[in-house]
């Protein structure tokens, strides 16, 4: 059996962008055994891809805060032992960072990655046995697919396929009230959309008969979600959930509206009608892409009016909604 190992550890959007490469690899190497090294927080998401046989969690984000503890080093030792327990026929680092290159170097097997001009951190390229030129002007999904294809000896073709089945993931009680998911939170303040804009949009969506759901990931985001919910009719703030449950929440939505955040890319991967708002970043290389209805608004440093978003929602919603 051919053993293939993907190394794409984080963050959420990057993990989602790696899924089409995994789908391609499974299609072209149907008998292969596919494994994926991914940050522990994103492991539930990687496990949702039906083409992945094994998920190997890494906890670098947690370990780096606890390097003075003996328990941390024992855990790192177990991770390294698992990583080296079997040889791989092909190892592919689609991330291209020094920290992922270090992981790649630990694996037994021929290591593939981006060449020095293509990689995100030039030093990482020195860790690969085979280096591939992949244009940096390409979208992240296309870069992952091309690198994987070159490592495995095929040319990627066909539309993007994230390998996720929206119908299978949607909540079993999907016959309940239709709802919109508002992805209001993002890691960088310059990417945020004003709260009064969210309130105005939320009221417009509620007038369409949609319940409003405001997920969150940090305590600051939870506080923001509660402020918005207090000003919106029919809004709810769910408990914090692991990513596989968040995926199910998004899969069941009638529409998703969000700023530049990882969950936005998950919505695109699931094919949910999506409106993305970019006010502090450029969507050309890392914007949402997929086969579902997507409207991408704004540009780096630009503004996005509520009326623009409302019009985009009307375009992506199913007929009669």
UniProtKB/TrEMBL annotation:
What reactions does this protein catalyze?
A: an alpha-Kdo-(2->4)-alpha-Kdo-(2->6)-lipid A + ADP-L-glycero-beta-D-manno-heptose = an L-alpha-D-Hep-(1->5)-[alpha-Kdo-(2->4)]-alpha-Kdo-(2->6)-lipid A + ADP + H(+)
For biological process, the GO terms are: lipopolysaccharide core region biosynthetic process
Membrane topology term: Peripheral membrane protein
Which GO MF terms are attached to this record? ADP-heptose-lipopolysaccharide heptosyltransferase activity
> Which InterPro entries does this entry report, sorted A to Z?
Glyco_trans_9 (IPR002201), LipoPS_heptosylTferase-I (IPR011908), LPS_LOS_Heptosyltrfase (IPR051199)
One GO CC annotation: plasma membrane
Q: Where in the cell is it found?
A: Cell inner membrane
Its Enzyme Commission number(s) read 2.4.99.23
Pathway participation: Bacterial outer membrane biogenesis; LPS core biosynthesis
Grouped into one coarse class, the protein's main location is membrane
Q: Which UniProt keywords apply?
A: Cell inner membrane, Cell membrane, Glycosyltransferase, Lipopolysaccharide biosynthesis, Membrane, Transferase
- Name the protein family: Belongs to the glycosyltransferase 9 family.
This chain's protein is named: Lipopolysaccharide heptosyltransferase 1
What organism is listed for this UniProt entry? Rhodoplanes serenus
Source organism lineage?
Answer: Bacteria, Pseudomonadati, Pseudomonadota, Alphaproteobacteria, Hyphomicrobiales
Q: Which gene encodes it?
A: waaC
């Amino acid at each position: 059996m051919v053993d293939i190992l993907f190394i794409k550890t984080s963050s959420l959007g990057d993990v989602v962008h790696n899924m089409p490469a995994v789908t391609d690899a499974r299609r072209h190497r149907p008998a292969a055994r596919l494994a994926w090294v991914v940050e522990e927080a994103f492991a539930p998401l990687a496990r949702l891809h039906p083409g992945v046989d094994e998920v190997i969690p890494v906890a670098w984000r947690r370990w780096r805060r606890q390097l003075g503890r003996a328990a941390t080093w024992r855990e790192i030792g177990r991770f390294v032992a698992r990583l080296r327990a079997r040889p791989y026929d092909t190892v592919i680092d689609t991330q291209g960072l020094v920290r992922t290159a270090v992981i790649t170097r630990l694996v037994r097997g021929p290591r593939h990655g981006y060449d020095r001009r293509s990689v995100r951190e030039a030093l990482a390229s020195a860790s690969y046995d085979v280096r591939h030129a992949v244009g940096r002007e390409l979208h992240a999904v296309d870069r992952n697919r091309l690198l994987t294809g070159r490592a495995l000896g095929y040319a990627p073709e066909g539309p993007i396929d994230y390998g996720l089945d929206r119908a299978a993931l949607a909540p079993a009680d999907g016959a309940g009230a239709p709802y919109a998911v508002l992805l209001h939170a993002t890691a960088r303040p310059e990417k945020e959309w004003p709260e009064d804009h969210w309130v105005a949009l939320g009221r417009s969506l509620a007038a369409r008969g949609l319940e409003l759901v405001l997920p969150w990931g940090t305590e600051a985001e939870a506080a923001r979600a509660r402020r918005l919910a207090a000003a919106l009719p029919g809004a709810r703030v769910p408990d914090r959930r692991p990513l596989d449950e968040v995926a199910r929440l998004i899969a069941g939505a009638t529409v998703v509206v969000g700023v530049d955040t990882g969950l936005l890319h998950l919505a695109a991967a699931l094919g949910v009608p999506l409106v993305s708002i970019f006010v502090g970043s450029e969507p050309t290389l890392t914007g949402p892409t997929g086969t579902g209805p997507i409207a991408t608004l704004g540009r780096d440093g630009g503004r996005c009016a509520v009326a623009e978003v409302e019009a985009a929602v009307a375009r992506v919603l199913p007929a009669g909604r």
